[in-house]
Amino acid sequence: MSRTLQAILFDFDGVIANSEPLHLEAFQQALEPEGIELAPADYYARYLGYDDVGLFEALGRDRGLAMSSGQVSALVVRKGERMQEMLRSGTVLFPGAIEFIRQAAAAVPIAIASGAMRHEIDEVIDAAGVSDLFATIVAAGDTPHSKPSPAPYRLALERLRKVSGRDIDPRRAVAIEDSKWGLESAQGAGLRLVGVTNSYPAHELTGAELVVDSLTALTLPVLDRLCVG
């Protein structure tokens, strides 16, 4: 058991799974019948931090489109169907993700706090054989507000405390994120912040106390020292 580090909370898309390009393609396919284009530059600059509902709502506001809740729901379903088709086509895990998850789970309770759909997360981690290593998973719809709200990380931390029976100190728990929105969410929950440059360069990972280029660069002693600092 780690002496200082008490928990690790992972974002999913962009940290464990290299699924952001798949999400973009699924969003584009869902929007195509509506005659709405979503350019990659717009997606990464403006919308990556949203869950599915939040993206369609924000896109509607930005484009001046009146989208009813029914239309948003239909787009979410269509996008989810496209995403599932692509996820079944092959592995989307980042190199080193499985190895680090196994090391982390052997030392401290671990969780996922994500804006991805629960079934998308389950499909990937089940196929990778690590689903039983996560003490809890917070996914899209589990909280009233998605990232950059701190709600997903607060809920994940609360569940980790219940499952582990430990009063986990947020300053001794690490969130691993790939975007400024995720880091803002984790910061609002009081967690220590690690950024991974899978989606954005280091200078755009605002607030990160430590930035690495992949999970292969992380070790438990490094996270221990981060929690001491």
Description:
The chain has nine helices and six strands, in the order βαααααβαβαβαββα. It is of the alpha/beta class and 229 residues long. The chain has a six-stranded parallel beta sheet. Strand 4 (173-177), helix 8 and strand 5 (192-196) form a beta-alpha-beta unit. Helix 1 packs across helix 4 (69-87) and helix 3 (52-63) packs across helix 4 (69-87). It is globular, with a radius of gyration of 17 Å. It starts with 6 loop residues before the first strand and ends with a helix.
Radius of gyration: 17 Å
Largest sheet: 6 strands, parallel
Helix content: 40-55%
> Which descriptor suits the 3D outline?
globular
Show unreliable segments.
none
- The structure class reads alpha/beta
Strand order of the largest sheet: 3-2-1-4-5-6
Total number of strands: 6
The oligomeric state is single chain
The proportion of residues in beta strands is 5-15%
Arithmetic mean of pLDDT? 93
Helix segment tally: 9
Query: Can you write the helix and strand succession as a string?
Result: EHHHHHEHEHEHEEH
First-to-last CA distance: 19 Å
Features:
229 residues, single chain, alpha/beta, six-stranded parallel sheet, 46% helix
